[in-house]
Design a protein that fits this description.
Largest sheet of chain A: none
Radius of gyration of chain B: 29 Å
Radius of gyration of chain A: 23 Å
Strand content of chain A: under 5%
Shape of chain A: elongated
Oligomer: heterodimer
Number of helices of chain A: 3
Structural class of chain A: mainly alpha
Shape of chain B: globular
Distance between the termini of chain B: 58 Å
Number of strands of chain A: 0
Number of strands of chain B: 10
Chain lengths: 99, 731
């Protein structure tokens, strides 16, 4: 009985692990674009978080009006650049945000 | 035995699938082939399925007391309560390694699933590193420490779970520690992969931050549960003994805490890349070292149940991790150059760097003190250890600096703090802390212990700065939304979980260390020998030993332990304060003809009698003097041995009945004619603050790692500048 169970478990493992290879599609070019887009999306999220935190720092008195204006302008310019590059790659459609 | 065969097969398959996953992931990383990357990821899922099956099989064997399994015989018995049978699985070396593999594959699967569409060039290499960890532990379980070793004829009884491990903490403390250890391998793996691919921007940090936080959370809870266990079970009255195995769990937590702070500098400023990579690689390696210390027995520890022969493979594996990590960081030093420089020493970046240096300093002191016996043996040939006073000498000032920095950090600005900002942010906290200090000095004797007094001041400073931050945040929120204060507070935290979760953790940590400072500096402890009717006094309390207690505890119809205890009435100024019932448990050896005396010569457990309160704990443990019972016990042993010799063969069941009757008589004699008992009595202030502080700390950690609301990740559309504003406004 045990050999049958072990063979069944082995078959399930092989079936699960090999599924992507059995349904193989060549997506190497697409992956390169996806990798760049993922990186830009992550950079966009990080930049947005930075801008929000800057605004909160300003609102809670940790930044002077002048410092805030300068730093906020810099970060928004960086965010614009990220969005521009994202649009060059076809925008951020179709990319899952992940964790 | 059938299930053992299947369990062994599962582990062999898990080992094979980990090796396959490693090869497939490396191939996918080199060719950037999506299908092979998916196949490698599925290999990790399969490893999880196989490890789960093996773990369930072993757990079931423990629950049904299947003594065909060698590990069940040596770590459980029919008299072990069911709750502890379930936990006994990871008391054994084999079981704990299987728990490691199970948790590693669980967390790896969760993380690889969640990040399947992120960092697609990096994740194959991270998968490969996780498969290396999986293959190492599966390999140990297959080739060196199989949990599925069986014997053809099962013994009728097992040795039982070590009495010291019969504590509710056994169910949750090791899984929490191991969850922390295994989760720290995730950022380790991603860091290795990012370095291999030279993708050393902030993305790998962003992708792994939550998992590093989860590791910090679980490991921290595990450490605190261990401290609580020590306080309530071990009978010495402390919660931290600087034991090597305790220290081993603290080390990755300290470096992990440093990483969680310094990663913010890389995210915001592109700085500290070498530091962050080194820190998380060290943390991952220390997590493996923690497991090694528990299981190897190379250092003398109260966790000595871990002695094993697995030292060599662990040392080789740790050596490979260290050499590989150093090689990787050195070879990528050009890519790891900082994008920015420090603008000012008065900035949040500087405070974070100082905080990192203190945390790494604490880790270094802990590491040096822990491994000093091995270092001294290597240098002088003599193994000598350092004790708690040595640790305290260095860790107390460092802890003080850490708490102070955790108060300064939240209120100082990024990049550059101006004098005006500093005045605005520090005036109220400094003034209130000073007022608190004056009040404390006048109302108590806190200044008698300068280090502890300093810790109270620093902790108060942290609480005030964080309250001020919450108040200002709520005010800013209300200025925008006109919400009520509670709604504004909830919205503020909800939209800035990371920041306010972190601040909450700072408060919790300050409360915890205030509890440590108070309970260690102002503790009153006393060892006294009493007979019923006698009294002792400690710190204004009168402790009246009223009567002795004793009982024989059975489980599943068999003798589990003999308990001798005491009823103590505690009063102050003639007013009753508490009735405490400490006791000590003795566990008979689970062998057919074990002598009666062996029950009192082996391991014993202490159940402390305690009245815990917010201001102080009254804690007692009892150590009965059994010398007066010895003659009777020895005489009965002689009678039993003679009976066995005379009869040639005695029915073990009959022997057990006679033995049980003797134990009943021993208990009766102890209760009716109690000998003197030694009591350890402790009055410790603010111990509860340690546990409350831990709850606040990890509550804050939970808030910080909770996933952001969906709105934060909503997709962007439209033209650039307006789009940035709109997307920011939407979140």
């Amino acid at each position: 009985m045990e050999p049958l169970i072990v063979i069944a478990v082995l078959a399930v493992v092989v079936w699960v692990v090999s599924a992507p290879l059995r349904a193989a599609r060549t997506g190497r070019g697409e992956d390169r674009v996806a990798v760049q887009r993922d990186a830009l999306l992550a950079a966009k999220e990080a930049k947005y978080r930075e801008i929000r935190e800057l605004a909160l720092d300003h609102a809670t008195g940790k930044l002077s009006e002048e410092d805030f204006r300068v730093q906020d302008r810099e970060r928004r310019a960086e965010a614009i650049e990220i969005l521009r590059r994202l649009d060059e790659l076809g925008g951020d459609e179709g990319a899952a945000p992940g964790a | 035995m059938d299930s053992a065969t299947i369990g062994r097969a599962c582990l062999i398959l898990a080992f094979g699938v980990a090796l396959y996953g490693l090869a497939a992931a490396v191939y996918a990383g080199r060719t950037q082939n999506r299908e092979w990357a998916a196949s490698a990821r599925r290999a990790v899922y399969a490893m999880f399925g196989l490890a789960t099956a093996a773990f369930v099989i072993l757990e079931a064997a423990f629950l049904r007391s299947d003594f065909h399994f060698v590990t069940v015989t040596s770590h459980s018995s029919t008299t072990t309560p069911t709750f502890y049978k379930a936990a006994a699985t990871w008391s054994s070396q084999e079981g704990s390694l299987l728990l490691w593999l199970f948790l590693l594959s669980l967390w790896s699967s969760v993380v690889l699933y969640l990040t399947r569409n992120r960092m697609r060039d990096v994740t194959p290499y991270a998968t490969a590193v996780l498969c290396v960890f999986g293959a190492f532990f599966a390999g140990l379980l297959v080739f060196a420490a199989s949990p599925f070793a069986v014997v053809a004829t099962a013994p009728t009884e097992g040795s039982g779970l070590s009495p010291l491990l019969r504590h509710p903490g056994m169910m949750i403390h090791p899984p929490m520690l191991y969850s922390g250890y295994t989760l720290f391998t995730i950022p380790f793996a991603v860091a290795v992969a990012a370095l291999l691919k030279r993708r050393v921007d902030a993305e790998w940090i962003t992708a792994t931050r939550r998992f590093a936080l989860a590791a910090w959370f679980f490991l921290g809870i595990g450490v605190v549960l261990g401290a609580r266990w020590s306080y309530t079970e071990l009978g010495w009255g402390g919660y931290w003994a600087w034991d090597p195995v305790e220290n081993a769990s603290l080390l990755p937590w300290l470096t992990g805490t440093a990483f969680l702070h310094s990663l913010m500098i890389q995210e915001r400023r592109g700085m500290l890349k070498v530091w962050n990579a080194s820190l998380i690689l060290a943390t991952g390696t220390l997590a493996i070292m923690g497991t090694f210390l528990v299981r190897s027995g190379i250092l003398d520890s109260i966790h000595a149940f871990g002695a094993s022969t697995l030292g060599t493979p662990f040392v080789i594996f740790i050596g490979v991790l260290i050499a590989g990590s150093i090689g990787l960081v050195v070879s990528r030093r050009e890519s790891l150059k900082s994008e920015n420089r420090l603008d000012s020493l008065l900035s949040r970046e500087s405070v974070f760097i100082a905080n990192n240096l203190v945390l790494v300093g604490l880790a270094f002191v802990t590491f040096w003190g822990t491994f000093f016996p091995l270092i001294s043996e290597a240098v002088t040939g003599t193994k000598s250890a350092v004790g708690p006073p040595w640790f305290d000498r260095y860790t107390v000032p460092l802890a003080l600096a850490l708490v102070l920095l955790s108060g300064i950090g939240p209120v100082i600005a990024w990049r550059r703090a101006t004098a005006v900002n500093a005045r605005r942010n520090f005036t109220v906290p400094v003034a209130l802390t000073a007022a608190f200090g004056v009040g404390l000095a006048l109302a108590t004797n806190a200044t008698d212990r300068p280090w502890a007094f300093g810790m109270f001041l620093c902790s108060a400073f942290v609480v005030v700065t964080v309250v001020q931050e919450f108040a200002r945040g709520v005010r800013a929120r209300r200025a925008m939304s006109a919400d009520s204060v509670p709604v504004a507070l909830v919205q503020l935290v909800r939209r800035n979980r990371r920041r306010y979760g972190g601040y909450t953790a700072h408060v919790g940590f300050a409360v915890l260390l205030a509890g440590v400072a108070a309970s260690s500096a102002f503790q009153h402890a006393k060892d006294v020998e009493l007979v019923p009717g006698q009294k002792a006094s400690i710190n204004g309390y009168t402790v009246d030993y009223q009567r002795a207690t004793g009982r024989v505890v059975t489980a599943a119809g068999r003798l589990e332990r003999i308990e001798f205890g005491a009823v103590l009435k505690v009063s102050k100024d003639r007013k009753a304060v508490a009735t405490l019932r400490p006791n000590r448990g003795y566990y008979p050896v689970n062998a057919p003809f074990a002598p009666i005396a062996s029950a009192f010569d082996g391991e014993a457990t202490s159940e402390v009698g305690m009245k815990a309160g917010v201001t102080k704990d009254i804690w007692t443990a009892v150590q009965p003097d059994l010398a007066t019972l010895r003659p009777y016990i020895d005489q009965q042993d002689k009678v039993l041995v003679a009976a066995v010799r005379q009869a040639g063969a005695v029915d073990p069941g009959r022997f057990g009945q006679v033995r049980a009757a003797v134990f009943d008589e021993v208990v009766r004699q102890y209760v009716n004619n109690p000998p003197p008992a030694t009591f350890r009595m402790i009055v410790s202030p603010m111990v509860m603050w340690i546990w409350l502080g831990a709850i606040i700390t990890f509550g804050g950690g939970l808030v910080a790692m909770w996933p952001a609301p969906d709105g934060v990740r909503q997709r962007a559309r439209g033209r650039y500048a307006a789009r940035v504003a709109r997307e920011l406004g939407r979140a």
